Fold this protein.
Amino acid sequence: QLQASGGGLVQPGGSLRLSCAPSGRTLGTYDMGWFRQAPGKEREFVAAISWSGGTTHYADSVQGRFTISRGNAKNTVTLQMNSLKPEDTAVYYCAAGLGRGASSSGSDYLHWGQGTQVTVSS
């Protein structure tokens, strides 16, 4: 299981830091991704990082504003979100996959967290 945390309510232009940690497994060999789903919309890719941390991939909509990284022991993954916009409002999910690199495809991920709500509003 994966535990995502760090969501909340923030004003436009603000920042949040999401974290994803495992429960009962290690993330060290997993490629990790963040996805989000807004009400009435399909799930979409946000960012991904390879198991080594050497490769990252971002959706165009968040490029330059969001940063994905792994902890020193590679057992946590964070998503630093800056310059947040109302359109970033969604439930954010972390996911873990094997052997697919920093993939933007949800089907490449085996394990999913429960999601954390991010609301950007004034």
About this structure: The mean pLDDT is 93. The CA atoms of residues 28 and 72 lie 10 Å apart. The longest strand covers residues 90-97. The radius of gyration is 13 Å.
